[in-house]
Amino acid sequence: MRICPGISARRASAIALGCFEKLGINFIEILLFPFLTAEAIAERFPLETSHAAEEALKAGRGALVLGFHYSNWEIMGVASTLLNREIVALARPLKGHLRLNAFLIGLRASTGLTIIPNKDTARDVMRLLKENRLVAFLGDQREKRSKAVWVELFGEKVPTSKGVVALAMKTGAPLIPIYSRRNGFLRYTVVCGEPLPVARKGAPMEELICRNARLVNELLERIVIEHPDEWFLVHSRFGRRQRDA
Question: pTM for the complete prediction?
Fold first, then answer.
């Protein structure tokens, strides 16, 4: 297993099985979430936030929210309720599955998210940040090789998106990780972490982008290594290895 090198085959199988079990639980939770009352949400979803994140959110520049396919990411819109701030999420439409796409958008909106298609959204993001809104990205999707920067993840160079770090560099908006820790069925601690220390000066642009993309991957490593079965292992995050130059 590439995220846990050196573990036994038995342990790798247990992690894979745990991943599929949690995906099944996630689906049931997504269906039940819209029926939760405000009181139940407050009781089931405690918020753990850092002082630095709180100050960044008060700065009035908007913020870029960094999420991952970890734990039950589909109900992370609850963070908008807990923070009392609208979160706009960028989602890639499912090609050829219009009804399923509409169904998922409806479910995600029920958790508190505002959904816009993730196609060519740089202009929309700039506008939303100027309006002091929070814009969410998933930071662990495999990027197309032609658009990616190759950055280390669990010891391998993998094609990594530069979009969110490029926006953070250009706009000066804080890049704040938000993810959850599973506490039980439909019970999670929502973690609003320290803003990532995005570098904006001191090196050529491409080098800065790679450094900042590595910050994202380092954070993902720290989160995933605690509970590997909580990550969406079905997703082909690594893909083919980089060709030699």
Answer: 0.90
